[in-house]
Amino acid sequence: MAWVNQTMVTEFVLLGLSETWEVKVLLFVFFLLLYTATLFNNVLIFSAIISDHRLSDSPMLFLLGHLAFLDLCLSSFATPRYLFDFVAQHQAISFQGCMAQIFFLHLFAGGEMILLTAMAYDRYVAICHPLRYASLMSRHHCIGLVLASWAGGLLHASVQLGFTISAPFCGPNQVDNYFCDLPFVIQLACIDTYPLEVMMMTNSGIMSLVCLLVLLLSYALILSRIHSRSRSEGPSKAASTCTSHLIVVTMYLGPCLFMYLRPGTRSMIDKVLSVFYISITPFMNPTVYALRNNDMKAAIRRLGSKFMFRSYHAHEQLECPWVTFPFRGGDSRR
């Protein structure tokens, strides 16, 4: 099937999540606070891991550092523009900007799906095959998993963008969301959108479904092993940890499956679910994966102490420069 590129649309109008001014203000405050907290948490975790060699040598925390970086990217590709456009009262986005949002959304979201699957595999090996953990999760294998997540996300995003950008857009240009998401944009194409929806279901939907099934299988095996051990050793903290991981992963992949495996018209629930996987999940991941880890909490405290120490000494140098640069042969305070 050959599509002749007859695109005449030069920009899209983002309708947002609501048309009521009061609701728009509440949403602006909500997204501003949520984005600020997401940036703070993920930057803190990423900085703590790269500044502490003991943490970066741990396979789980090495993967967690890359998850924090992906969460930063996923939460930043659209939310800052939404906040800026609200202040500037500007709702339009160029055609190229819209296509870029679609590409980066699927690059970061696809990479995060694969990385979450790799982290589940790490926990499976650590709990079910502890004697082989050092060999199966060596530094080379961890780097390979990270590269695979980026390569998978790039391939996934390239396929999505290739099909979308080749479709003609010559009529309506109003996107019923606050960013360009594929299910909402392809409805505006001036052709029969069924082939595009099939492509979307095949690519995004099946990818999400496969990752979810692998994750469910991994955590099922982990919880089964923990349950068998707990009969003799008592309740394990790992069980609650794995359960919380599974809940967050389901909250991330569930909306993706609902949106990308269901063709047809879009409703308000689709817009709400899109908030989950680009805003809520990047905010929750640090709390669930990192801030419950004792090594991670200790590293954050060391990073905070180091920052306070440097700030204190910088303040002392500003007030008492002679302490660092004394005069020779005379009174150092003169």
Q: What proportion of the residues is helical, as a percent range?
A: over 70%
Residue runs with pLDDT of under 50 for 5 or more positions:
1-5, 323-334
Quote the distance from N terminus to C terminus: 85 Å
| CATH H-tier superfamily | Rhodopsin 7-helix transmembrane proteins
State the CATH topology: Rhopdopsin 7-helix transmembrane proteins
Number of DSSP helical runs: 12
Work out the number of β strands.
3
Which strand-content bin applies to the residues?
Answer: under 5%
User: How are the strands ordered across the major sheet?
Assistant: 2-1-3
Major pleated sheet: 3 strands, mixed
Gross morphology is globular
Helix/sheet category: mainly alpha
How does this structure look, described?
Helix content is 73%, strand content 3%. The chain is mostly helical. The chain has one domain: Rhopdopsin 7-helix transmembrane proteins, CATH 1.20.1070. The chain has a 3-stranded mixed sheet with strand order 2-1-3. It starts with 10 loop residues before the first strand and ends in a 15-residue tail after the last helix.
List the helices and strands and how they pair.
Elements: E1 11-14, H1 21-51, H2 53-56, H3 59-76, H4 79-88, E2 92-94, H5 95-128, H6 133-136, H7 139-165, E3 174-175, H8 182-185, H9 194-233, H10 237-260, H11 268-290, H12 294-319
Parallel strand pairs: 1-3
Antiparallel strand pairs: 1-2
Helix pairs in contact: 1-3, 1-4, 1-11, 1-12, 3-5, 3-11, 5-7, 5-9, 7-9, 9-10, 10-11
Task: Sum up the structure in keywords.
single chain, 334 residues, mainly alpha, Rhopdopsin 7-helix transmembrane proteins, globular
